[in-house]
């Protein structure tokens, strides 16, 4: 611990990791059907927990209100309520809009000593795969974050905050126009909850093209990839033909109302008898 505090070094034995593959669904056949959970040593967990507690205290002052995950005082319900308000008001005003939900495939200023600590935690990670309960092989980490590492959620939140800043800059330059809601006419372009990001756009070809350029730029320098098979775009008072063309350009699906957002229905009608079955 003293060596880590001074030099930011975690030896490879302390940071040894066993990867346990957990199936996401029944009859899993592909590698992508499994979720890799990292089983890490108790000593490393103590180090990571201490850093995570310290990081949690400053995230609320660093990350904007658009991000709702892993930030003290913010709740998942806040994002769901705002998203539904955007959709409902756009419908009532009979305006055209787009709702685009994306999913990242996988899932850093701070002082020199802090960056050294974080770097020591990430660079020293090494892995073995658990096969039938026994570790096989050993290889070092080259990129990415470990599911099961107490630091991972907070570090990922910092990474996707860059996307929030890019969207903010694009909106300020009027490269992207969001949907306006409320008496004070607040413009909403996106909401984030960990790796769940949803965009609200004025239905316009230039808007759509500029959003795609922002996403491509973010993925290029962050190393994250968008899982297009889990992305969907839904229109608000939008022609079906335009929606099909936009979905083809992005390689995503066309969603239907109500769509699922953070496990709850978005854009549904609460007065309909089957609304409650989606909860």
Automatic annotation (TrEMBL):
<protein>
    <submittedName>
        <fullName>Putative RNA-directed DNA polymerase</fullName>
        <ecNumber>2.7.7.49</ecNumber>
    </submittedName>
</protein>
<dbReference type="GO" id="GO:0003964">
    <property type="term" value="F:RNA-directed DNA polymerase activity"/>
</dbReference>
<dbReference type="Pfam" id="PF00078">
    <property type="entry name" value="RVT_1"/>
</dbReference>
<keyword id="KW-0808">Transferase</keyword>
<dbReference type="InterPro" id="IPR043502">
    <property type="entry name" value="DNA/RNA_pol_sf"/>
</dbReference>
<feature type="domain" description="Reverse transcriptase">
    <location>
        <begin position="3"/>
        <end position="266"/>
    </location>
</feature>
<dbReference type="InterPro" id="IPR000477">
    <property type="entry name" value="RT_dom"/>
</dbReference>
<keyword id="KW-0695">RNA-directed DNA polymerase</keyword>
<keyword id="KW-0548">Nucleotidyltransferase</keyword>
<dbReference type="InterPro" id="IPR052343">
    <property type="entry name" value="Retrotransposon-Effector_Assoc"/>
</dbReference>
């Amino acid at each position: 611990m003293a060596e880590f505090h001074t030099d930011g070094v975690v030896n490879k034995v302390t940071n040894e990791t066993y990867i346990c593959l957990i199936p996401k669904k029944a009859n899993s056949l592909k590698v992508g059907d499994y979720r890799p959970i990292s089983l890490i040593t108790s000593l490393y967990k103590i180090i990571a927990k201490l850093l995570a507690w310290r990081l949690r205290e400053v995230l609320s002052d660093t990350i904007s209100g658009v991000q709702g995950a892993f930030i003290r005082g913010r709740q998942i319900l806040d994002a769901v309520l705002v998203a539904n308000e955007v959709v409902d008001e756009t419908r009532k005003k009979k305006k055209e809009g787009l709702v685009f939900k994306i999913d990242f495939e996988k899932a850093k200023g701070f002082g020199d000593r802090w960056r050294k600590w974080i770097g020591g935690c990430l660079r020293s990670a090494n892995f073995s795969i658990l096969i039938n309960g026994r570790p096989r092989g050993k290889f070092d980490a080259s990129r990415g974050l470990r599911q099961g590492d107490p630091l991972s959620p907070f570090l990922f939140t910092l990474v996707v905050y860059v996307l929030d800043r890019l969207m903010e800059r694009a909106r300020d330059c009027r490269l992207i126009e969001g949907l306006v809601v409320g008496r004070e006419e607040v413009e909403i372009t996106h909401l984030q909850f960990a790796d769940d990001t949803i965009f609200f756009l004025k239905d316009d070809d230039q808007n759509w093209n500029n959003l795609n350029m922002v996403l491509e730029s973010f993925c290029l320098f962050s190393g994250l990839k968008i899982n297009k098979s889990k992305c969907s775009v839904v229109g608000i008072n939008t022609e079906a033909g335009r929606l099909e063309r936009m979905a083809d350009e992005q390689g995503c699906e066309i969603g239907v109302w109500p769509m699922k957002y953070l496990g709850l229905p978005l854009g549904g009608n609460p007065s309909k008898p089957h609304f409650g079955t989606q909860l």
